[in-house]
Amino acid sequence: MAKRRQARFTTQDLEGLPELDDESPTLWDESRGEVPRKLLTSAVRCFASNGFHATTTRDISSGVGLSPGALYVHFPSKEDVLFEIIRTAHRRVLSYVSEPAVLTVEDPVRHLRALVARYTEWHARHHVAARVSQYELAGLSAAHYEEIVEVRHETNVVFRAAVERGVTTGVFADIDVKRVSRAILSLGIDLIRWYRLDGSDSPGQLGEFTAQLALKMVMTPDIDLEAAGVGAQSTSAE
Amino acid sequence: MAKRRQARFTTQDLEGLPELDDESPTLWDESRGEVPRKLLTSAVRCFASNGFHATTTRDISSGVGLSPGALYVHFPSKEDVLFEIIRTAHRRVLSYVSEPAVLTVEDPVRHLRALVARYTEWHARHHVAARVSQYELAGLSAAHYEEIVEVRHETNVVFRAAVERGVTTGVFADIDVKRVSRAILSLGIDLIRWYRLDGSDSPGQLGEFTAQLALKMVMTPDIDLEAAGVGAQSTSAE
Amino acid sequence: MAKRRQARFTTQDLEGLPELDDESPTLWDESRGEVPRKLLTSAVRCFASNGFHATTTRDISSGVGLSPGALYVHFPSKEDVLFEIIRTAHRRVLSYVSEPAVLTVEDPVRHLRALVARYTEWHARHHVAARVSQYELAGLSAAHYEEIVEVRHETNVVFRAAVERGVTTGVFADIDVKRVSRAILSLGIDLIRWYRLDGSDSPGQLGEFTAQLALKMVMTPDIDLEAAGVGAQSTSAE
Amino acid sequence: MAKRRQARFTTQDLEGLPELDDESPTLWDESRGEVPRKLLTSAVRCFASNGFHATTTRDISSGVGLSPGALYVHFPSKEDVLFEIIRTAHRRVLSYVSEPAVLTVEDPVRHLRALVARYTEWHARHHVAARVSQYELAGLSAAHYEEIVEVRHETNVVFRAAVERGVTTGVFADIDVKRVSRAILSLGIDLIRWYRLDGSDSPGQLGEFTAQLALKMVMTPDIDLEAAGVGAQSTSAE
DNA sequence: CATGAATGAGGCTTCATTCAT
DNA sequence: GATGAATGAAGCCTCATTCAT
User: Fold this and answer.
1) How much of chain A exceeds pLDDT 70, in percent?
2) What PROSITE patterns has UniProt attached to this entry (chains A, B, C, D) (predicted)?
3) What is the pLDDT of residue A12?
4) Interface residue B132 vs chain A (CB under 8 A)
């Protein structure tokens, strides 16, 4: 009976992907000791493969070669581990797109381009942690959730402002700022659903590519189907 | 801290949103009886709010006013309920973008536009079921998962073909078919993360808007930063 | 390592004492089903022998031949089982000493006698449940604890009033009402520390005996050591 | 509901009652170092507030500002700490009522009075440690329990002998020695359930008061309800 | 069909105790 | 002596699932 937790990707499987190993460990505050950082890395992998609720605290600690109770020496609860991961990821993204190198770019085009490229690149490079950070929000307590929502909002504001500036200055086409910003963020985030570091795109390349798409979205005026020289037969088809 | 299953959206909450009520019940095969269909609808809401693993079979059955055992009269297991939901959703999407009204459109521009509009519209209208169908794949058994992957692939092929056709016929710019198709699908799916039926966009409007963005992505040639008339100071900044 | 829970009396041991079997089952509200009542009886025995915290939920349910989880079909938590026991015991005592047959006795002497006899008799007859009810209060939640304190207070009031009446009417000696009432309650309760139904005293006999002691305490004026005809040598000894 | 260990009295609370601070530290053999004595004092408070099983070794050591492992530098186990407390308390009581000043009193009245006064006074003064010593016996190992039972028996014998002497010499009424001794001990012990040093009675006053009650119990002949001048109506009522 | 008590397999967390530093 | 990370053995409680009614 009960065919529970058929976990498609086990910790072992992931161990086989060296790219996953390389990524998370660079994420955590160095103020933490080595063991808690390893636990966070293990948790990221487990949560990303099986989801928060399908991951046991045993999975996390045994991923570091420790006993079940060891987790609680360093974190008050499983939920706190999740929170730590999500909070860190959200903060890192925000600070990565808020660095002076990006913020100080005067030209709206280059500014947005840099923003999107960095945002996308970060999510690609940290796609495992990002998956947890985007898809496991339901595992957070109400209080922790609120805290994350704040950071998300700040990040959104950064993008909306960038698009807005381009429109206001007339460099971009006359587009719907809120909707287009939302779409740009979608492009930069949704890749976590399918991205793999060992695929054909490096994080940097994917960033550039996505930035190009974003620019097309903001710089092109709406396409008028009639004016687009579309044949008569298809006009009626719609 | 962190209460067990703090369920941001409870069944009750969702009950309060009539839009959610209206949507799922239209999804299920009419060959099924009324009770199983109600159970599926209840399950969709629970899975969407709390996730598959955080949802209990009691949540599902009590959402229809039935006792714990009732679920098993109609479904062999909780995982089968999930499978039924995900399979139905995937099939509906595929058939919705494969209808003659779309397939027979000759003009690549109008064809892609219709495709994206429909795809987006479907996900917006059924955003609750779509959330389950996209984010709870990890809850499926390996065998069921495979079955879903097939359908997803077919859907992807439809989009890739549409983009390809535009490029081949020279109607679209000379773009990277695979990457752009992927990005278009991202736009049409990612809205399930934030879309609400009671928001400012109707599914139809969002579909049109997204279609426009997709057209911009396929019809605009790459933007040359130098040629874009960017000022000198920022040129060096990059 | 760890020689935890050496439980002097196990459920089995107690099973051997038929007197224990006879007592508790008569305590519970008949509105409850048979299984919950059996669980309460089992819990009383476990808590009395090992204490609340040293009793496992498994001990309780296996004492009725059920599986570990069965307890939770009938009670929300272990603490609720304790509360139910303590509440029932406290209420029964109060109502037993508040019955018309006692309350309506006009004569203060006979009134107090009846009160003490009944109070003592109840604790003797239900000494196992009473032990839980008196010594395991620390296991209650704050809210539940408050509820019990209320009932205790009511019971205390009954005794204090009885003593007061005797003093006011001049039937008793001129004693300290509060302190003597407290002492009388001590006599009626402390027997739960050592009483056994199979000992030489029946609950009724012990009740009568204790009532006699209580009467001596209220009807005798303070003893003056000097006037008590005590020899000179001992006077200085003090 | 019901939080784990809702500890009505925490170490902090107790810290606030200077009387509690003053009492236990005087109990321990001076042959022990200062740290172990402080640990015992901390343990007494914890065990008294929450019970042995609900007290963690961390509670005890942190109550002295030490780390978890510190306890084991001085005691082999938590149970040994409990044993040390209970043994010390029991021995102190026995020796306190066995001092020459009491034993040499010739007069049975003054002898019993002194015995009860001292016994009561000790329990009042050390009511916190006494609570542990009386109510946490179930936490002891079988071997340790036996050792304690011995001491208790010796103490009981002292009281029984005192009462017996009074009866034999005709100074006391013709009472049931065993039962009355038991009742007297009840009066001297049960106060630990409710006594507080900051209440209206000092240990000495409570001792005197209880001694008076004991004397009334041994010196008064049984009260004959008929002869007690009770009115006719109540005679039949019984 | 539906019920709901019961099961049994964990899952999260706690905690007495150990041990390297 | 003291520390505090680590252990491993439970303990409370949950939950998918079964089955007699």
Assistant:
1) 85
2) HTH_TETR_1, HTH_TETR_2
3) 39
4) no
Task: Answer whether residue D224 is part of any domain.
Answer: no
Contact of B232 with chain A, judged by CB distance below 8 Å, is answered with no
Q: pLDDT, tens digit, for every residue of C195-213?
A: 988 888 999 999 999 999 9
> Per the CB < 8 Å rule, is A53 touching B49?
no
The string of pLDDT tens digits covering residues D99-146 is 999 989 999 999 999 999 999 999 999 999 999 999 999 999 999 999
Q: Which residues of chain B have a pLDDT value below 70?
A: 1-22, 226-238
Q: Which of B76, B101, B130 lies at the terminal end of a domain, its last residue?
A: B76
3-state helix, strand, coil in chain A (%, to 5): 70, 0, 30
State the Cα–Cα distance between residues D148 and D145, nearest whole angstrom: 5
Flag whether residue C148 sits within 8 Å of chain D, measured between CB atoms: no
Whole-number pLDDT of residue C23: 75
Burial of C167 (0-12, 13-18, 19+ CB in 10 A): middle
Is there a single domain that holds both residue B91 and residue B164?
yes
C73 CB below 7 A from strand E atoms: yes
Last residue of a domain, one of A32, A53, A76: A76
Structurally, how many domains does chain A consist of?
Answer: 2
The 10 Å CB-count burial string (b at 16+, else e) for B160-184 is bebbbbbbeeebbeebebebbbbbb
The domain that holds A123 is classified in CATH as: 1.10.357.10
Identify whether residues C140 and C201 lie together within a single domain.
yes
Q: Give the residue, D33 or D2, on which the prediction is more confident.
A: D33
CATH number at residue D42: 1.10.10.60
Provide the CATH number for the domain around residue C25.
1.10.10
Q: Is C228 at the interface with chain D, CB within 8 A?
A: yes
D187 shares a domain with D111? yes
Q: Where do runs of H (alpha helix) occur along D57-174?
A: 57-62, 71-74, 78-97, 100-103, 108-125, 127-135, 142-168
Clarify whether residues A71 and A59 are in a common domain: yes
Arithmetic mean of pLDDT, A155-178? 95
For residue C113, how many C-alpha atoms fall within 13 Å in the half-sphere facing its CB?
Answer: 24
Least confident of A174-183, B86-95, C26-35, C83-92: C26-35
The spacing between the Cα labelled CA in D158 and the C1' in F10, in angstroms, equals: 44
Residue D223 is given by DSSP the state P
Query: Are C148 and C128 part of one and the same domain?
Result: yes
Residue C233 located in a structural domain: no
Q: What is the pLDDT of residues D149-166, one digit of tens each?
A: 999 999 999 999 999 999
Q: Tell me, in Å, how far CA of A73 is from C1' of F1?
A: 23
**Residue whose CA is minimally distant from F15 C1':** B56
Looking up tokens 């038991």, which residue turns up?
D182
pLDDT at D59: 96
CB proximity A2–strand E (7 Å threshold) = yes
Among residues B148, D54, A50, which one has the least CA distance to residue C138? Answer: D54
Distance of C1' in F18 from CA in B69, Å = 9
Chain C residues with CB under 8 Å of D113 CB are: 225, 238
State whether D88 and D57 are in the same domain.
no
Residue B2: which nucleotide is closest by CA–C1'? E12
Residue D96 and residue D37 in one domain: no
Give residue D7's pLDDT: 42
C227 domain residue, yes or no: no
Question: Do residues A62 and A109 share a domain?
Answer: no
pLDDT at A179: 96
Query: For the segment B104-118, what is each residue's pLDDT rounded down to a tens digit?
Result: 898 999 999 999 999
User: In strand E, which positions have an atom below 7 A from any protein CB?
Assistant: 1-20
* Residue that wins the pLDDT comparison between A231 and D187: D187
User: Do chains A and D meet with 3 or more Cβ pairs nearer than 8 Å?
Assistant: no
- Residue D233 in domain: no
Q: Are A11 and A63 in contact (CB under 8 A)?
A: yes
Q: B110 and A215 in contact by Cβ < 8 A?
A: no
* pLDDT averaged over every residue in chain C: 87
Label each residue of B114-159 as H, E or C: HHHHHHHHHHHHCHHHHHHHHHCHHHCCHHHHHHHHHHHHHHHHHH
Q: Estimate the share of chain C in helix, then strand, then coil, as percent rounded to the nearest 5.
A: 70, 0, 30
Range of the domain at C52: 11-76
Nucleotide nearest to D39 (CA to C1'): F2
C74 touches strand E (CB under 7 A): yes
